[in-house]
Amino acid sequence: MGEMVLVFAGAGLEWDAAAFFVSNGLLDQPAARARMQALEAALDAEPRMLGEAMLFRADGSRMASA
Questions:
Q1: Angle at the Cα of 13 (from 11 to 15), degrees rounded to 5?
Q2: Which of 16, 22, 24, 41 has its CA 20 to 30 A from that of 33?
Q3: Cα(9)–Cα(6) distance, rounded to whole angstroms?
Q4: Cα dihedral sign, 24-27-30-35
Q5: What stretches of 2-64 show up as alpha helix (H) in DSSP?
Q6: 58 phi and psi, to 5 degrees?
Q7: What are the pLDDT digits (tens) for 21-50?
Q8: Distances in Å between the alpha carbon of 29 and those of 15, 19, 33?
Q9: Quick one: 7 exposed, middle or buried, by C-beta within 10 A (0-12, 13-18, 19+)?
Q10: CA distance 31 to 50
């Protein structure tokens, strides 16, 4: 849980929660940006995709998927 708090703190912004999606390995910056844009578009079209993510509250605790 402490590691997630550090991730949130390192962002430099206030967060309520975050969703993490699994990737098939590390991505370089252009590929990561393209993947993020694709995920944002997919989430706009189908918000239920959040059920596939690992969800964390700002205090680092994991939220259960629906």
A1: 95
A2: 16
A3: 5
A4: positive
A5: 2-10, 29-45
A6: -65, -25
A7: 887 888 898 998 999 899 999 999 999 998
A8: 23, 19, 6
A9: middle
A10: 21
Looking at residue 38, its amino acid is A
Shortest CA distance to 62 belongs to which of 9, 23, 5? 5
Residues 6+ apart with CB under 8 A from 28: none
CA-to-CA distance for 14 and 22, rounded, in angstroms?
Answer: 23
- Is residue 63 scored above 80 in pLDDT? yes
The token pair that represents 33 in the structure block: 């940006």
Tell me how far the alpha carbon of residue 3 is from its chain's centroid. Answer: 14
